[in-house]
Amino acid sequence: MENKTCFHCGDNCGNHVISFQEKSFCCNGCKTVFEIFNENDLTCYYDLQNSPGAIPKEIDGKYDFLSQENIIDKLTEFRSDHVEIATLYIPHIHCSSCIWILENLHKLNPNISGSQVNFGKKTVRITYNSEETDLKSVVVLLSSIGYEPYISLDDFKSGKKHINRTLIYKLGVAGFAFGNIMFLSFPEYFEVNEYWLEQYKPLFRWLMFALSVPVVFYSAQDYFISAFKGLKAKLLNIDVPIALGVSVLFIRSTIEIMLDLGSGFFDSLAGLVFFLLVGKFFQQKTYDFLSFERDYKSYFPIAITKIERDGSENSIQVYDIEKGDRLLIRNEELIPVDGILINGKAKIDYSFVTGESQTVSKQSGDKLFAGGKQTAGVIELEALKSVEQSYLTQLWSNDVFNKNKEEGFTNITNNISKHFTIAILTIAFIATTFWLFTDASKAMSVFTAVLIIACPCAIALSAPFTFGNLLRIFGKLKFYIKNASVIEQLAQINTVIFDKTGTITSNKTSNVVYEGESLSDFENLVLKNSLRGSNHPLSRSLYNLLDEHNIITLDTFEEHIGKGIEAQHNDINLKIGSANFVGNPQNTAVLNTTVHISSNNEYKGKYTFYNSYRKGVSKLFNQLKKHFDLVILSGDNEGERENLKKLLPAKTKLIFNQKPEDKLEFIKYHQSEGAKVLMVGDGLNDAGALAQSNVGIAVSEDVNVFSPACDAILDVSKFRQLYSYIMASKSAIKIIKWSFLLSFFYNIIGLYFAVTGQLAPVIAAILMPLSSISIVVFTTICTNLLGRRLK
Amino acid sequence: MSVIYILLTISVIVGVVFFFIFIAAVKSGQYDDSYTPSVRMLFEDELVKSKTEKPINTKTD
């Protein structure tokens, strides 16, 4: 059969193609979206990009909570009697068609007066008439066209996120002053001795002074604050010599123009601050669409359906859940609190919490933990605790989550600045003493000249530009790092700890091995066809893994829930399911998931599911073993131990049955023994370990949606590159050390002029930008070469 | 010779005006999203186009 792809979402249509207007669709959902667009003259959606859509999900009743006043209050950024404005996060935004359709929402609902997409952040800001429509219908409309917004407990925070733009303002002020001061100092550079220039010299100089005041007191204030804090903590950080240089530059220049001694160094001053701020700005690479600070709140729903005593259903806020409340959990919904199952068939996916990949079946009366996702139908449960007191959420009360990893970490620049500052001060004092005895009138000017020329602009720029550029290179290679300090810490790692499920194994595919008597061709045919009829997750994955067969009609087909399938075709009667169901005589306790098969009541054998490891795991571990200690820290049972032993180098430690807190403690213990730990994990169950480790990397299949709080996010497709990424960080440190050498070279030239008392403003004005620019060029070229090797 | 005062005043005023325009632009959030506007400006008359396309569509149906 020719495989057609869906006109709307681009998925394979499979066996059931739905045709409409000569276009093929994979499901009714996609067709409905097309119909909506077609009726409203919005089919241009499909012209901008091929198959841009997503299958709309079942949302019946899911957004009832959006009609509650207090929830609307929190989610909207503006509310009046007539107009409401809400910003919604929509993970599906990915192409120009998305922007176009979302900005034409008013064609679908005339009460929406405007909508504006922020592509980077994947948000849409919708303005609508609140008298005619409401937030709920807007969200339902979005969901019905395949753009379901992601609303989590995180959105419930009071107060809007404040965007900090001070650095841009500071940069603007410094740049403005730098440019204008340069213009004003031009005549002085060339010493044009014209009469009228002489006459206006004081005016020019005082103008420069006026321009440099905001540079020193506004743009450079962070350096003073940081230097002051450093001194208070008895640390000579890089900001100490910078603050010293800036203040000496400003004071000496002011005195010079007051006493008419010279033109001062205002140009160098403004240039210095400008370049430093450019470095700071460059180092700040942010990924709008990623968040490194997620906790359970980003995963939890904002509201849940409560069943009142009289049987009526009401949606209430998750924070308002009290002990004893009866809650209704729909399919695919997350359980927000610990509770007892009252009604319904629970199949809970705890992969969020434990990393365990298989769903767990629960009977009524069983305890359910918060963080599990219901995967089969509707259940009712009674809350045992409130949200904050639940098992999963308590993990976040651990101190680790309030600790700032950057504290207590001396970065490479501050390390060198300690020696640098002491050396410069020594040189300054020796030179001054020398001049005091030779020509006392020059002593003061030599002292200040040394401090001015030694101002470590080039040193301070090395690290920001190297790391900033590497952050961008890594970002292009789908390795998203929170900030520059993470690269430095990554370069110092000596232990690498991996989580198993979801990190080194893939969530989507599993391997299956058949043991036992081989099945006849005809039995295989019946097997495949009986699996086709079943919706059980194991049947679905086994069906996809088996070879293709013809489709036949079964004589009888019966699914015994919780046990297995029974199917009859001609003279073959197959039973597929649990060991007891098929009548397996030797019922051994196996840790792996198995599906047993019997034909005509004769036991045939079983399919065992094994985790499928990501491609290149073995190679990656072999690369890593030369330099690092390796550990696998899994929340899963020991079923995979033998497989892992075969796959991984012998020295890898394998530790199983680890609860989230155990993982955290394990890392803490190793750190106390001097290990610098890199934790690679994926789920919420690793959140504590990721926070405790020196560097926590979250591996993610979809970087837009799910990743716990961490220092870096790695796209799974690049998982096997991890080794080269760590090595690249180490090379970055080398690049910085080389550029330190380069800037020392400039400093020595500058110091020669300063010590001999020949530092003219024009030399400072040339030397300082020259050293800064050559450092920027050097580090950029080096990191780009490094990046080229990574690809 | 005092024309230099006028020239200086003008140059400083022009500089300051541009500086304040820059600050105002940053404040308005103009630089927060540097990608979407580049796509948005290419959307122009898609709606008109789809209307002229519609009769063709119905013909083939």
Low-confidence residue ranges of chain A? none
Structural class by SSE content of chain A:
alpha+beta
Count of DSSP H/I helices of chain A: 25
Strand fraction of chain B equals: under 5%
Q: How many beta strands in the DSSP annotation of chain A?
A: 28
Q: Give the overall average pLDDT of chain A.
A: 81
Low-confidence stretches of chain B are 48-61
Question: Using only CA atoms, what is the Rg of chain B?
Answer: 25 Å
Task: Kindly provide the radius of gyration of chain A, computed on alpha-carbon positions and rounded to a whole number of angstroms.
Answer: 33 Å
Query: From the helix content, strand content and strand pairing of chain B, which structural class follows?
Result: mainly alpha
Mean pLDDT of chain B: 73
Please name the fourth-level CATH homologous superfamily of one domain in chain A. Answer: HAD superfamily/HAD-like
Strand order of the largest sheet of chain A: 16-28-27-26-17-24-25
How far apart are the termini of chain A? 39 Å
- Helix coverage percent of chain A: 40-55%
Largest β-sheet summary of chain A: 7 strands, mixed
Give the number of domains of chain B.
1
CATH topology-level fold name of one domain in chain A: Rossmann fold
Shape, principal axes of CA atoms of chain A:
elongated
Report the largest inter-chain contact: A-B, 36 and 32 residues
InterPro entries (chain B): Cyt_oxidase_maturation_cbb3 (IPR004714)
Pfam families (chain B): FixS (PF03597)
Keywords (chain B): Membrane, Transmembrane, Transmembrane helix
Organism (chain B): Winogradskyella ouciana
